[in-house]
Amino acid sequence: MRAARRAAAPLGGVLTAMVLLWQARGLDEVARGDQLGPGFWPRLALIGLGVTCLVKLVAEWRRRHAVASPTGRVPRPSGVDPLPEISQAKLAAGVALIVLYVLATPLLGWALATAGFIVAFMWLSGARSIAGIAVNAGVGTVLLLYVFIKLVYLPLPKGAGPVEAVTLALYRALRIF
What we know:
Blueprint lengths: L1 H22 L16 H25 L23 H21 L1 H15 L5 H22 L10 H12 L4
């Protein structure tokens, strides 16, 4: 019964990805010939979700059919450390950061919210090098800005009030606008 429960989530992910992929088939009816249509990125994410869940499903199936030890548990290969326990507090904080990021993005603009999210998530994950966190947040945000605005042509939120002026100044400094 435990094996069936472990396989239920990946199976549900595969089925959900397939249904949503089927529903997304008409998104590119408004696409121009020289650009990616509005359905490209959602379909790419759904394919990634489906493939990842399928790999997890196969891993669970193989685990179920592996030779079990006398205790009924699948033995670990020698030299492999057991997985560490998941910190429920860190997991809850990570989920809260994601929700906060989604809520803050319209107010702070995508660039500032993303940089702040990267800083907070790296700190939560255990990174403590201020320089490393700053470089990752800065370079990561700038690279994603170029990909989303210049390559994919996504209109990202610029923020509310004076933050919009800061975002536009950043875009001009990066020659995005």
